[in-house]
Automatic annotation (TrEMBL):
This is LigA protein. It comes from the Bacteria. Gene3D superfamilies: Histidine kinase-like ATPase, C-terminal domain, PPM-type phosphatase domain. Residues 151-340 form the PPM-type phosphatase domain. It comes from Streptomyces himastatinicus ATCC 53653. It holds the Pfam family HATPase_c_2.
Length: 345
């Protein structure tokens, strides 16, 4: 049945590497600025700054190769702060979330404060022995009365090449009725012209995200004829199956706790230049499955033998784990993870 369209196009992800204690202040400022840009009211921008500060401090004291990824939530209103590192992990995760617990001689209120201030907080930690080593966390802050946006089964990270402000990748998600449609665009090359091509394709996506996928991609092709062109991948999630239409190097995979169930790459061609008639692939979507859509800035090798720990991550943390651990730093990189929209009585 038809229903309201919920959609958003989010800017590239702000990345703050926690390689020195001074980065804690930068993380707090970035979170405060993002919260204000998202229109979060009242004390929420200051709460976002506190959450970022606590997560960054935790990375500074306990982790290696720690980074915060700060951005609007992928779907709905609000913002999120993702934390990722490469170890050593938290052997007693539940105790670490309790006020007063510390291993560094501090007051031990960091993660407890994050749990209280965030609308929704998810965290997982691997300590080796066959699992990914490290900790991944996602704190979402949404406007009062809009908890639903914080609980959406969607995650994404979109990163520009180091040293560049413009990102040639882009992504968007839209809910239309009982389906969820997600798109990842990869403008050829990187920089301003690639970003313009990707943004123009997403503008086409948002004119009617519920229309047939082949029509969506064909509309993008027409709109991008005066640009350098792009790769495009669009996936639509139903309760029990998914559809994919792609041109170029955007991949889609369906993963469950048991492993990778489906994997597809777009047809050869360039949206806006030389594109074959788009073909829509339909494949099963097992219960609890997650669709992973990513540009070639994410190394496809992650899917050859993913660990059970990685496969069990919720969408918000899976996107952070893939971007943090499998990014190709010389290219723009985008990963978008999604499950079908939840039905409400």
């Amino acid at each position: 049945m038809d229903g309201p369209v919920i959609r958003t196009t989010v800017p590239p992800t702000a990345q703050v590497r926690i390689d020195h204690h001074s980065a804690v202040h930068l993380a707090a400022e970035t979170a405060r600025r993002t919260a204000r840009a998202c229109g979060l009211p009242g004390a929420l921008p200051e709460q976002a700054a506190v959450v970022a500060s606590e997560l960054a401090t935790n990375l500074d004291k306990h982790a290696s190769d720690g980074t915060l990824y700060i951005q609007p939530v992928p779907l709905g209103e609000g913002m999120e702060i993702l934390a990722a590192d490469r170890g050593p992990g938290m052997a007693e995760l539940e105790r670490c979330l309790t006020d007063g617990y510390t291993t560094a001689g501090t007051l031990g209120v960091g993660l407890g404060a994050v749990t209280r201030l965030a609308t929704h907080f998810a965290i997982r930690s691997g300590t080796g022995a066959g699992a990914e080593v490290g900790t991944w966390a996602c704190a979402r802050l949404t406007p009062p009365g809009d908890r639903g946006a914080a609980l959406q089964g969607v995650g994404s990270v979109c990163l520009a090449v180091d040293g560049e402000e413009d990102c040639g990748d882009a992504r968007a998600v839209a809910d239309t009725g009982d389906t969820r449609t997600a798109a990842v665009l990869d403008g050829l090359g990187h920089g301003t012209q690639a970003a313009e091509a990707a943004a123009l394709a997403l503008r086409v996506f948002h004119t009617d995200p519920g229309r047939p996928l082949g029509e969506l991609v064909t509309g993008m092709h027409r709109a991008l004829r005066q640009t350098r062109g792009a790769a495009a991948g669009v996936v639509r999630l139903h309760d029990d199956h998914a559809e994919y239409c792609g041109i170029g190097n955007v991949r889609v995979l369906i993963v469950t706790h048991q492993g990778v169930q489906s994997r597809l790459t777009g047809q050869p061609g360039v949206v806006g230049w030389s594109m074959p008639a788009p073909h829509v692939h339909r494949f099963p979507l097992p219960p609890g499955a997650t669709a992973v859509l990513h540009s070639d800035g994410i190394d496809a090798g992650w899917a050859r033998a993913p660990s059970p720990f990685l496969l069990r991550l919720p969408p918000s943390l899976l996107s952070a784990a893939l971007a943090h651990g499998h990014r190709r730093i010389r290219d723009d990189a985008t990963v978008l993870t999604a499950r079908p929209p939840q039905r409400h009585p």
